[in-house]
Amino acid sequence: MPVSLHPSCLVGANPIVWSNDDFMDLAGDVPLDTILREMRAAGFAGSELGHAYPRTPAALADALGRHHLRLVSGWHSTYLASKPFAEEEKNFRAHLNLLKTLGARVAIVAECTRCIHGDKNAALGFGSRASELTPRLTASEWRKFISGLKRLAALAASEEMRIVYHHHMGTVIQGEADLHHLLAAVPEISLLLDAGHLAFAGIDPVAIAKKYAARIGHVHLKSVRPAVAERVRREGWSFYRAVAHGVFTIAGDGCVDYPAIFKILARADYRGWLVVEAEEDPVKVPALPKARKARAYVRTQTGV
Questions:
Q1: Domain locations in the chain?
Q2: Strand pairing class (248-249; 223-224)
Q3: Which one of 117, 139, 203, 293 is separated from 255 by 20 to 30 angstroms, measured CA to CA?
Q4: Radius of gyration in angstroms for the set of CA atoms belonging to the chain, rounded to a whole number
Q5: Phi, psi for 53 (deg, rounded to 5)
Q6: Which pLDDT band, with edges at 50, 70 and 90, does 128 fall under?
Q7: Per-residue pLDDT for 100 more than 70?
């Protein structure tokens, strides 16, 4: 049965539905105006950042304002485990300033030290192959990462914002044990619940949503096609090949139990953004019809 989420919840979209950020050959040349116009036409209230978006407050405000869209947030890659903190702090401050100036209240962070998701040829690691192929941090790197993330979280809090951590395939926070370790070590951060990445990694998204319901600060909505995911695991595909062959799809399709997740969000009195994604090849799967279908599904299931 549909649930009623808090009326302050808003539904946005990530421009990756139209134009892939990691792989420019997957419709990476779609103009910003096309993305924003279709995003608004599909019924979304806001947008996350993408590679085509201006990164100065005035220009970004103008682009979004022309289409009556709000800025939701934006991905920020950190290298806290491998780069000097002063460099990381400088980059994060600039990103935080852009978000805050345009009214966003959460900063999406993912540690990208030794990440492989942008490598078209790097096989993803699962199960027995995870220790061999999945990026890992040493004990000393974990300490550096945790310390740096705590400092960035304090910086965000001083600006009345908060960090939401994005677990992601092909990064050091892909597996369930590493996700639990991180969230236990840094209680100052919130969780970006991305059920698609959880399911792809072999983690139960509903179980994670239940365990961390009070810490969910942001939600990405996409699902997984199990048959494609199984081929990725069996044949050692890269993240690029998985995406290009449709491992991800919109909420309401695929294997993720979104009705159960929406019930958990409702019980937790979640009041943040719900952001539609689907990292498919936009040439094979046109963006606007897919975006409209995803938006209608969220409205039917949640009332927002």
A1: 10-302
A2: antiparallel
A3: 117
A4: 18
A5: -85, 140
A6: low
A7: yes
122 within 8 A of 170, measured Cβ to Cβ: yes
CATH number for region 10-302 = 3.20.20.150
What's the length of the chain? 304
For the stretch 27-83, pLDDT in tens is 889 999 999 999 999 999 999 999 999 999 999 999 999 999 999 999 999 999 999
- Own/partner pairs, 43-46, CB within 8 angstroms, 24+ separation: 43/11, 43/292, 43/295, 43/296, 43/299, 44/11, 44/12, 44/13, 44/69, 44/276, 44/291, 44/295, 45/10, 45/11, 45/12, 45/69, 45/70, 46/10, 46/12, 46/13, 46/70, 46/71, 46/72, 46/273
Q: Give me the residue label for tokens 């962070």.
A: 109
What is the rounded distance in angstroms from the CA atom of residue 58 to the CA atom of residue 83?
Answer: 30
pLDDT digits (tens, 9 = 90+) for 221-271: 999 999 999 999 999 999 999 999 999 999 999 999 999 999 999 999 999
Of 270, 264, 288, the C-alpha closest to 278 is 288
Contact (CB, 8 A) for 11 and 298: yes
What is the Cα–Cα distance from 219 to 297, expressed in whole angstroms?
15
User: What is the pLDDT averaged over residues 122-138?
Assistant: 83
